[in-house]
Amino acid sequence: MQGTARTPSQPATAYTPTDRTVPTRSAERASYDRELVHAILDETYVCHLGFVRDGAPVVLPTLYARVGEVLYVHGSTGSRPLRAAGQADPGLPVCLTVTHVDGLVLARSAFHHSINYRSVMVHGVARDVTDPEEKRRALDALVDHVVPGRSADSRPADKKELAATAVLRLELDEVSAKLRTGGVNDEPKDLALPHWAGVVPVHRTYGTPIPDPGLAADTALPGYLPGR
After folding, report:
1. What confidence tens digit (pLDDT) does each residue in 9-68 have?
2. Phi–psi pair at 172, nearest 5 degrees
3. Is 109 helix (H, G, I), strand (E, B) or coil?
4. Torsions phi, psi of 180, nearest 5?
5. How far apart are CA 126 and CA 90, in angstroms?
6. List of domains in the chain
7. Could you tell me how many helices (H) and strands (E) the chain has, helices first?
8. Are the beta carbons of 81 and 58 closer than 8 angstroms?
9. How far apart are CA 73 and CA 126, in angstroms?
10. Nearest-CA neighbor of 175 among 64, 50, 44, 38?
């Protein structure tokens, strides 16, 4: 049976594995499924951005947002790596990671303790976003990725603020997901031990919003926030 031809506007359903995206340990936990990768990225908003500075590795926690097959990463123009991304040709080689912890796996033996998790790793070259319109769209996406609907309910950055803010663009090309699910993997000889074993689920929750003291008394809590 012939397959349906794919146009450039219809990305493949999976990313292509590379030497850098195939794990050397627990390779069976790796996935290159595009929808899974997007779902993991879209569920949170803090990433860790790794790069080499002055010959030594550096990892920075920062905010990001996905727009299609592009990740936008937030930073300051005073940051040395972000300045390097704008000065280097063709950009700054980086490794970006995102991780969710879904459960604590408590085994009968200390060796077999683990966590259930979902993670994404992206390799590529990050480039400074210099086009003003793309930069504004990227900053709106970053704000809305953290709190959906917030960019339309706040003052946009002015020229001075835009000049002080850096945004990196990282293409989703060399990408992999890795995850662990399920329960305890104890050794058969340990099953009779008298220690509790199982999974402790981990969930992210939000508390009730705390209003700024300077808010007018009649300022309503926006509908996009929890706690209404």
Report:
1. 556 899 999 999 988 888 888 999 999 999 999 999 999 999 998 899 999 999 999 999
2. -85, 95
3. coil
4. -125, 135
5. 9
6. 27-102+116-182 (2.30.110.10)
7. 4, 9
8. yes
9. 9
10. 38
Burial (CB count within 10 angstroms: exposed 0-12, middle 13-18, buried 19+), residue 136: middle
Question: Quick one: pLDDT at residue 9?
Answer: 53
Q: How far apart are the first and last CA of the chain?
A: 53
Closest CA to 60 of 87, 80, 88: 80
pTM of the model as a whole: 0.87
Question: Measured between alpha carbons, how far is 212 from 3 in angstroms, rounded to an integer?
Answer: 57
Give mean pLDDT, residues 149-171: 92
What DSSP letter does each residue of 10-63 carry, written as one string? S--SBPPP-TTTS-SS-GGGEE-BHHHHHHHHHT--EEEEEEEETTEEEEEEEE
Write the Ramachandran bin of 165: left for phi over 0, alpha for psi from -120 to 50, otherwise beta.
Answer: beta
Distance CA 185, CA 180 (A): 12
The residues, ordered by sequence, that sit 6+ positions from 65 with a Cβ below 8 Å of its Cβ are 45, 71, 72, 138, 141, 142, 144, 145
List phi, psi (to 5°) of 192: -90, 0
